[in-house]
Design brief:
Length: about 120
């Protein structure tokens, strides 16, 4: 995660929520400036994390043809965050939302992320 976070500031991106699964990663990111560059962010994040992983393990981290998905305008950040948080439950890796240790948000604790994602108005509590 630290290597992925390195790519945030130079690209004007903030990570809203993430979920590391055994064989893939879900991440919701948001542009924080008018010149935010999501493509550059994903390129740098994959480069930084892939290099660190390769140095530590001698193996490749990313699939050759992974993809990024742009959230449609009819999808809310809360809905996407709920999807990310529920992914380990759907996969049978956790019994309930919040039980998976590899989910969260870099700028808040998991409990606050869950509260926000499942709140009626979407405002952080």
């Amino acid at each position: 995660m630290s290597q992925i976070m390195r790519a945030c500031d130079p690209c004007g991106i903030a990570i809203v929520a993430y979920c590391f699964m055994p064989d893939h990663l879900h991440m919701l990111v948001e542009g924080m400036r008018l010149d935010a560059d999501g493509r550059r962010f994903f390129k740098l994040a994959k480069q930084y994390a892939g290099y660190a992983h390769s140095q530590a393990t001698g193996s490749r981290l990313w699939q050759r043809y992974g993809y990024e998905h742009v959230v449609r305008s009819d999808q809310t950040s809360r809905a996407v965050s709920r999807y990310l948080l529920e992914n380990p439950v759907r996969a049978g890796l956790a019994k309930s939302v919040g039980d998976w240790p590899s989910s969260g948000a870099p700028t808040t604790n998991l409990a606050a992320l869950i509260e926000w994602a499942y709140s009626e108005d979407g405002e952080a509590g």
